[in-house]
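Hello forum,

I keep getting stuck at the same step: I have a sequence, I want structure tokens, and every attempt I make locally crashes halfway through. Rather than fight my setup again tonight, could one of you with a working pipeline run this one for me? It's a single chain of 338 residues.
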Amino acid sequence: MLRIHFSAEDLARTRVASAPHPLWEIAASLHRFQTPAGRWAYAHWYRTARERLREAGLEGVVRQVLLPLFPRASYWPDFLTPLEGADGLEAGLEAILATPPDRVAAELAALTRVSRVPARLGRLPGREARGELVGILRAYHRTVIEPHEEWVHESVHTERMRLARHLLDGGAEGLLEGLGPAMRWRHPRLEIDTYPTEHDIRLRGRGLLLIPSYFCWKGPVSLADPGLPPVLVYSLHHKVPTGPARTAAEAAGSPSLEALLGRARAAVLRATAAGATTTEAARRAGVTPATATHHTAALRDAGLITSHRHANTVVHTLTLLGATMLSRNLRGAPPGIE
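Reply #2:
Ran it on my machine without issues. Output:
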């Protein structure tokens, strides 16, 4: 179990990352190659990622370098996901290069206690070897993450809007209560039962950075070193649609949401872009709450919105599919799946 201990000051300093963290997304995406768990949610990405890696000639280095460094295990080195990555890929890669050699060596030694580490990775404390690693990470990101960046950014944006509603209604504790079933808020602790090790993080006034991750599946992840700036990376509620929802998206070629969904249902969909209760969606669409409930159920069944109960109300927000359909409709382009 992971327990994160908050003070009043920590609650005030808790925040949500403003954009995807590219190095955490690299780590989580590499885990998608190591387990079939949740693969249905990334089926399209998984298929095209393998093809792109093969075409780019990167299959070998991914297998020999990246997968051993980012094992789907209870530990991998903290220096590979520096906080600076929140400012973008290049800032994160520079931080990897700047990591003190003794820290790199210590974290590699810790990795050997939970996973087999190829001998060639023992060179990583040296700056030249880390320069090679940075080049591999950059090429991997360019090949399999960048082609899906619009989806990644849309999903994080949708999650931020969902959490903003919880924050406005319940303050910082409301935000923490709204993180999802994998995490449980019990003042003054946030508890994660599924964490692979027994671990306590005492924030001690530093606050917590929440990092929603597109490629993270199920269990939240934190850093092993309690002295590093505290972060919690967790799986988004909004996954890549498959099955009937995806078929609906591919069939939705009309540039007019009204033509596709009908005027009232399209208005309900637009209302959920900023998060809306059933009553608010009804008011926006000019229909009764009972009719709005019917429309939200239909939109939810189509994979366009998701609904979360908060206190005595239900809040509806766009899924990644719904956000993409809405944004592409506004740009005059037909929605589809990259």
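The chain is about 50% helix and 15% strand. If your local run keeps crashing, start a new thread with the error log.
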